[in-house]
Hints:
- This protein is 44% helix and 16% strand.
- The protein is α/β, with parallel strands linked by helices.
- Among the domains are: 9-189, Lambda Exonuclease, Chain A; 215-274, CATH 3.100.10.20; 306-381.
Amino acid sequence: MTEILELPIRVMALHALEYCERLFYLEEVEEIRVADERVFAGRELHETLELQEGEKRQEFELSSDTLGIIGKLDAVRHREGGWVVYEHKRGRPRSPLRKGEPYEAWDSDALQLYAYCMLLEEHLGKPITEGRIRYHAENITVRLPLDDAARCKVNQAVARARELRSSLKRPAVTANERLCIRCSLAPVCLPEEERLACDPDWEPLRLFPRKQENTVLHVTTPGARVGKAGDQISVTTPDGEIQKFPLAQIESMVIHGYGQVTTQALQLCVLNRIPVHWMSASGFYITGAVPDSGQVQRRIRQYEALRDESFKMSLAQKLVHAKVEGQLRYLLRATRSAPRSEAITKSISDLRKSLADIVKAESPDVLRGLEGMAGRAWFAVYPNTLLAAGAGEEFQIKGRSRRPPQDRYNALLSFGYALLHRSVMQALLTVGLEPAFGFYHTPRSAAHPLVLDLMELFRVPLCDMPVLGAVNRKQFDPKVDFSFAPGRVWLSQEGRKKAVLLYERRLQELWKHPVTGYSLEYGRAIELEARLLEKEWTGSPGLFARARLR
């Protein structure tokens, strides 16, 4: 019988385990790692230590099958007749409980040091009696003895790490809220949102990033060539014009139409975890290449949860209710300053009736029928009744038409929905969910049910509202910005540029979440909603699909 050896536990993972078991699980089991400014500052510290201390540091990696751990030691020095392991930290030590007593190491730092000492002890075959941690913020060195109690802590931590590594269940959010403030994975873990779901009176901290720092690179010029220029992405147009974009500024890249992407550019994007998406020249989402890893546990939980038909139905009701309520709220807002026509009054009444019936729906088919009724009530007045007097007859529609769009306005909507499809797809893959396995929409060719599900929450605020506003402001030229063929209308190159700019600007607008109470960009709201969806089956339900127009 062949024995299967377990992979060793990283000593840095033991540090995370002592700090927070959930952090350990996210990093080591789900393989989610985020390098924030604290991580980069720590790396810089280690790179400059030699200059600061005026001596050559020894940094090397050791592993032990006996201990079941592997780690890279910061420094090993010979002191007072024996070898001493040194660990360097940017921050401050734990303050003493009483004045005059010595400073102490943090528990996670101490555990990390003990593990390094035990690795060195086994490697040298000689006893190691102590290790030292230097806290550079106050230039204080804490000495820690390697005694039986320390060895026991390491062994217990390794056993717990192995137990968690074999589990499909995420550990609970830590009870110590202060740990979350300094955690780089807080935007993934969403501890404050989870506490709020359990306690409606909780006042969450601002841990989820409000803005996306990088930008989406849209390549819209037909025949453009995307290549690699050192550590930059270069875009060369057919007339020879070259633009270069630093990788640090690119959040993702979207290729419209028949642009070319070199293998070198694709490899550069993959290595730097930059997603690449392709859209057709007519404005339909084709596919995307999104680097991912460690998604097995998350997708297994998704599959297990969405096998439950009653659970799927409850999610679908939340989703459809949120969509229809968004349509109703916008219609009420858009018509509040003037007397409402008979058509608008009827649509408002029909939408309200649909909302009342949605919560009582007993099957997906009934729910889809109610959504269809609400959709007909919506498009009975949107956009024709809401168009400004000077918007022009060119943007009037005879109802929703797609694949292909039959008129200018539907061409704008379809293109906007395709851009939204890209945003939602990327958010789901970033979270680690399977886009093809949804809870409301049914699978069909070239469609991703879970993407279509989540899109319903954002169609009104990110597409319907901005498009109507842009048309009313005459931002689109009915002759220049559209291309025509028998039975179809789509955006011209100039029209696509305007539509992309309109959509991306909308993503950057701040919006206040009605439940959490904090503001964030619409672009960030998509990822937040994807993470809240996952929480519906990971033990902290309650906040998904509660976003509303204000």
